[in-house]
Design goal:
The chain has eight helices and nine strands. It has three domains: about 70 residues, Orthogonal Bundle (Arc Repressor Mutant, subunit A), CATH 1.10.10; about 60 residues, no CATH class; about 60 residues, no CATH class. The protein is elongated, with a radius of gyration of 21 Å. Strands 6-7-9-8 form a four-stranded mixed β-sheet. Strands 1-3-2 form a three-stranded antiparallel β-sheet, with helices on one face. A two-stranded antiparallel ribbon has the order 4-5. By secondary structure, it is of the alpha+beta class. About 25% of the residues are buried.
């Protein structure tokens, strides 16, 4: 009974909209009681469960009558990366979409990570897929747009990078401060660097 009360009080003290994990209660001795209480709170609708050991203290909208606002895969992935101390980067398809190089809707939440590969079945869409990358340069980028460009163009064939792509890239690169551009362009592959420098040159 004491464990159940401790868990409930701890959760209710948090700000709503928080993703949390079973391991957040590792300090409590009776782990069987922890699991039972979390299950009970899920059944009561006070918290939501997303995959094994992943929970959410939901926001409840009263103003517009939306009720319980569920978590997103993006929020869950962000909380997981903080919990595990790993970095997450957008996948190639997501990077192309964010840059405006592709209009294809991304149904899968796929991320590159310096941690181990894993699939998290959140029950939202197709869950979260973490793909391990050995590319340590991704952590060195100082500008997020430059990092997205590096990911989006990685391994692309020359004929894929058409005139439309070059126009989009030119616009995206136009707002990057010179010092950040100079720093980050050196981290790109030779082919990607050539494309980026060509786009940047048209702005001068």
């Amino acid at each position: 009974m004491k464990t159940a009360r401790t868990i409930s009080d701890r959760i209710r003290a948090w700000e709503r909209g928080r993703v949390f994990f079973l391991s957040d209660f590792a300090d409590l001795e009776n782990q069987t009681a922890v699991r039972k209480q979390l299950s009970r709170l899920c059944d009561d609708g006070e918290i939501l469960r997303y995959g094994r050991g992943i929970y959410f203290y939901p926001v409840i909208d009263h103003k517009w009558g939306l009720g319980v606002i569920p978590a997103t895969n993006e929020a869950i992935a962000g909380a997981y990366s903080q919990k595990m101390g790993i970095a997450l980067y957008h996948s190639k398809a997501a990077a192309q979409n964010l840059l405006g190089l592709s209009t294809q809707n991304q149904m899968n939440a796929v991320y590159l990570t310096d941690g181990r590969a894993r699939f998290i079945d959140t029950g939202i869409g197709n869950g979260i897929t973490l793909l391990h990358t050995e590319d340590t340069r991704l952590s060195l980028f100082r500008d997020e747009t430059m990092r997205l460009v590096a990911i989006a163009l990685h391994g692309e064939k020359t004929d894929i990078v058409n005139r439309d792509w070059l126009e989009v890239l030119t616009v995206r690169l136009s707002s990057i401060p010179e010092d950040l551009f100079v720093h980050d362009v050196r981290l790109m592959s030779q082919k990607t660097r050539s494309i980026v420098l060509s786009c940047r040159k048209t702005l001068s």
